[in-house]
From TrEMBL, chain A:
This is ABC transporter permease. Keywords: Cell membrane, Membrane, Transmembrane, Transmembrane helix, Transport. Coiled coil: none annotated. InterPro entries: BPD_transp_1_N, MetI-like, MetI-like_sf. Its main location: membrane. The chain crosses the membrane at residues 31-52, 129-151, 163-189, 225-244, 284-309, 329-355. It is found in: Cell membrane. Belongs to the binding-protein-dependent transport system permease family. CDD domains: TM_PBP2. Pfam families: BPD_transp_1, BPD_transp_1_N.
From TrEMBL, chain B:
Residues 85-274 form the ABC transmembrane type-1 domain. InterPro entries: BP-dependent_transpt_permease (IPR050366), MetI-like (IPR000515), MetI-like_sf (IPR035906). Pfam families: BPD_transp_1. SUPFAM superfamilies: MetI-like. Gene3D superfamilies: MetI-like. It comes from Pseudonocardia nematodicida. This is ABC transporter permease. Belongs to the binding-protein-dependent transport system permease family.
TrEMBL record, chain C:
It comes from Pseudonocardia nematodicida. The keyword Transport applies. Residues 95-453 form the Solute-binding protein family domain. Keywords: Signal, Transport. Belongs to the bacterial solute-binding protein 5 family. This is ABC transporter substrate-binding protein.
Amino acid sequence: MSVPTSLTTRRARPAARRGGSGLSRLIVRRLLAVPVVLWILATLVFLAMRLIPGSAATALAGGGDGLSSEQVAQNQQQISEALGLDRPLLSQYLTYLGDLLRFDLGQSFFGGNDVLRLLGSALPATLELTVAAMTIAVLIGGVTGLIAAVYRGTWIDTTIRAVGTVSFSLPWFALGVLSIVVFGVWLGWLPVLGRLPNSLGYEPTTNIVLLDAILQNRPDLVLPWISHLILPATTLALSMAGYITRIVRASVLEVRGEDFVRTARMKGMAENAILLRHVLRNSALPIITVLGLQFGSLLGGAVITETVFAYPGVGGMVISGVLQRDYPVVQGAALAIALLYTLVNLAVDLFYLVLDPRLRKG
Amino acid sequence: MTATAMGSRGTTRRGTRRIARTPVAIVSWVVVAAYLLLALLGPLLVTGDPLRQSPAALLPMGSPGHLLGTDDLGRDQLVRLVYGARPLLMVALAATALATAIGVAIGLAAGYLGGRAEQLLMRLTDVALAFPSVLLIILLVAAAGAGTSSLVVGVGVALAPGIARLVRALAARESARDHVLASRMAGAGGLRIALTQVLPGTVGPLLVQVLTTLSIAAGFAAGMSYLGLGIQPPTPDWGYMVQAGQEFLYTAPSLVVLPALATLVFVVACNFVGDDVRDALDRKGTP
Amino acid sequence: MPPTTPTDRHLSRRALFRGVGAFGLGVGLTSVLSACGVAASDGGGGGASGGTLTVGTDATSGVFDPAFYTTLGDWMVVDSVCRGLTFCDFTDPDPKPDLAESWTVSDDGLTYEFTLREGVTFHDGNALTSADVLASLNRQLDEDDPSLPDGASRPFQSLGRNLTSLDAPDERTVRIVLQGPDGTLLARLSDIGARVVSKAALDQYGAEIGKHLVGTGPFRLAAATAGQSVTLEAFDDFVGGRPPVDRVVLQQVQDSSTMISSLISGAVSATQFTPYSAAEQLRANDAVTVHDTPYCYDAMLLMDVRRPALAELEVRQAINLAIDRQAILDQAFFGVGTLPEGYVVPPAMPGHDPSLADLSRTDVAEARRLVEAAGAVGREVRLMAASDTWHPRAAQVIAQNLTDIGLTVVSDSVDPAAFFSRVMDTEDPYHEIMVWERNSYVPDPDNMVGNMAVPRGVYGSSATGFDTLPGSERFADDTVAARNLPIGPERTAAYSEIQRRWAEEFMVLSMLVHSTNLVVTGANVTGVNVNALSTHRCFLEDASVGGA
């Protein structure tokens, strides 16, 4: 957390210097790395799931009653065969990879729902949650960071930094539960669970509520949707906001000390104008990079937040998948999370390269 | 370990500025030291058995004989809080040490060697970073079976890539410095150069990162115990205490609030201490 | 009895109970005719109508199929969408007519002939015929049935073990011929696995039936999102009349503190997944009603006699005597339950016999003496418990109790999903003392004693190794004999004798408490069959939401 990593790691390498195609070469290289990263990850998750003791077949076989031990074992055996769990690990793995190449993520062990279809409904929900959280975090973090930088060294700065540090140290696991009790029950301001009220008939088209509200002409969806989003998104945003405060403060201060700002100041530009025209623009780069990296912890936090708020996203899918030993669901959801995160970071990298010519030229 | 002892290690050969100058920083150093003392000596400070159950369950705070009340199994909450410091700090410190060891090894090798080795090592860390740490830990710990040692390994492995990235960047920078190039031309061995010439230059920023990692590790350790994947009952552990107390949030909120607060204060103090070291380093050059 | 109109349905149902009760689970009698009374349809809570009732559940996988048990929440959906030949409403143990309006049983107790009710329609508009019943039951019996999805466990497959034939002489008659008499058949036909699905839908959807379940129940499946919720809508043509509420939503809530908050805030208006720890605070809260449902849930310890540490009967007896059941009742169940006076038959079940209370008494001094006599002081014993709900608290109390009588306890807390497979795995290092529970899905003592005291069942074999002890073979015949006695003192005595012998001579199962799943509803909710809900059964046809 100490150093905006990309500032130091993304040094201009000699390779990038050759010819004018440096940027596109870099982009291609980064793109080519994505499938490799995903493959390694898919393998790790595949193995990890099978190392976890317990199997879905036992849970499924447990539904019957009045059977002898042998019959239960036989039942388990039949279910294992049906689910392909009795086959050697290597053969299971090869099938899995083969399916993966055809974009077939398999079916849930619990009822045979297509994992891709499950993701189709869960991923938009998680995206809504994380984007909302990111927005809240950037708003809070950006404003406080800027103020802290402007009032550097004063009590305002100290207070903001202290509060920021406390906020990203908050025990993320207990935060959701506490906020439900305070805002959902004691104050009764906000709904405590789900994504939309159950009494509201909602038939998803894209499953992105805001989009569906427009497509289906359902303005009545918007307010309940926002009110359901506030608590989980804020819970998720809080620990990140403090971190953004820091980064914004640090990069604003760094840019402020640089030559061109000093030049502008000497030219007699007003301090506010400098702040807006030079400082903010130039400090945006490291901030965006950090946001990309932080997107990962946001997705991680979503796993817990979604479970606590009974929010129907990918994170909750992973947790119940792990609990039920539903391998295809966990594998699919993990891959989706990794892909999302990798793509976001790739986008940030590209953005960065496009915006900062220095990195291209070296 | 006292603040000054830590402080002398916190300064580098380049930075001579003393640490712990602001009141916040001083308090943070004291708090971190106090937690370490509590973890070491806690059992000597209170009388009572953290596991001993009694019929006097869910007594409120301030009850006679139970200053902070009792939990749902009638165990003294104060004793359990005090005993809870050790498992958390142990896991956090061990996981941080593991993360640092792995991270430094990978980062140093990559940064110093460069080329294909660097590519390979950095792809590996990319894979780890392509996945939220929380999920990584949940999977690792679930696969290895819940418990203290798998928690340490899970958290350690999940946090290593961050350190590896930093060390690699620093090492690459150091490697390009004149004195390293000079040693290299003089024909010194690779490992020797890496350890004697490159590594020292990374110590300052690394220390900051290690302190940050410690605070994250403590948060994860408590979080995983909260999820039932960490330290197992009946061992008193703050994360598990929060989880177990959660059902009494309306009737006995202190069962949740106190262990959560105990965790929070430690994590905050670690972060402030990290800030302090960083500030000290920032006066001299960039990390 | 003549056909009835809705107004006298209640009365005739009562009469019916008596009739079926006298009939006593169908041994020896030839015929019971009951042309009246669709079970459990008393017209609801004063005709309040409309609104949405949200029920909190453990999980939903978005697939609902009587041949495929997935989660309790999914099972509750099947329970609401489909009906079976018979019906247990959990006010008394007797199975009542449902899709079968009457049945006859042959003198030898082997042939059952069911006459289907007329005028029952499925949600897809088709009329119920015997072909629907056959198609639904055959899926449970035949593992190669094309309408079975991969992984289907066929929960009612045990019917096949004792079956000679299953056929339909005509459109309105279904005949089941058994190999040996089974006094519990009618009760078991009311279970969720025996629910009837539209054959037309089975033909149309095949293995996908779980996503398009079509039954005759009070609610039809409207929408489902795996991991989130299931929406059911009132079925206008339900044979018992349209339910008062328009919509039932089964909402997945996995975090127990969120469940408490949801109940208080009204986001959930009925659930049986309430943490026991919340009982007291919820009772004090005017927004919700905590129901005192009958105790038909056994919490117990299973002891594996194959482990050297538990080889001596004295040690197992000592463990049984050491347990502070009052502490478990107070601290793990928060008072929701009662001490196990009837050994494994809970108070809500016929056959409950408080004279067995001494089998679950606590006597620490005697326990210590037994441990010393067996030379087991300081012996290491291993204790395994799931890490959810009441288990960890109970396990901690038990660990303390066993330490107090001189044993050394090593505990393992297990992820609930892995627990059952570890109980089945006799090689597991912690397969020694296991904290477990059993729900009575069907209110018959056979469901407890008949399942747990048989040597070759899961309890007698995998879990405890009871079947390895000399003298255990007898219990197989004894439990079958008891099962086929008519409900009454003789049957109770038979079960009590089995239990006493089982406990005193073998002690493989130590009872902890009898409890119930804690049912809580919103204060504005009426008509929920809370007894059924407390055993994970979902009968909401009479439920209504006030002020809707």
